[in-house]
Fold:
Amino acid sequence: MTELALTDLTPWGMYRNADVVVRAILVSLVLASVATWTVLLVKAVELAAKRLSLSRQLARLRGLRSLADLPPAATRGAVAVMLAEARAEMTQSGLQLAAAGVKERMALRLQRTEVAAARRISRGTGILATIGATAPFVGLFGTVWGIMNSFVSIAQSQTTNLAVVAPGIAEALLATAAGLVAAIPAVVIYNALARVVSGYRAKLADAGVMVLAVAGRDLDRAAAEA
Structure:
């Protein structure tokens, strides 16, 4: 132990005097914390834009009488894909629009679109769950390593003087604190984003139902004219 290790017990001082293992653990936890806040910023902006766009598309779909009444350029994102899938099924069905299976096939296409859109919007949140689950154990490993260093210092100095063991114990506690600082926000942010994503998926389901309802009107008219 250097003289600085005996006197400088600030977080930066403990980091400078920690061994390479504890330093690596602290750096990894800092990087994990940075990743957590980066994901929060990116996903918050993305989800806000997606939810606003989807709300506008839902407003356009309400009261729509036919798929032909809404030009493709009026929609974007998942709703545009849903409309394209519905129109594609009607085009591929051709003269069989009155057949009973058309609506079921269209519903399957819309369901697939919803699942794909929900999967895309959830990308990046898995890292938060990983950080929340592993960061405390990474910090615990640093704790164990710091305590081991303290016992080594005791054995080498043949004394239990607090000045000898304090640096290692301080490193151990710093690693524990860093693990909690990385894990707690990750868990909280993950749960918050999961709730927002669930709300977005519910709106996607509403959009799918509306598209299917409008397409169903077109199918009913085709059946009546047949």
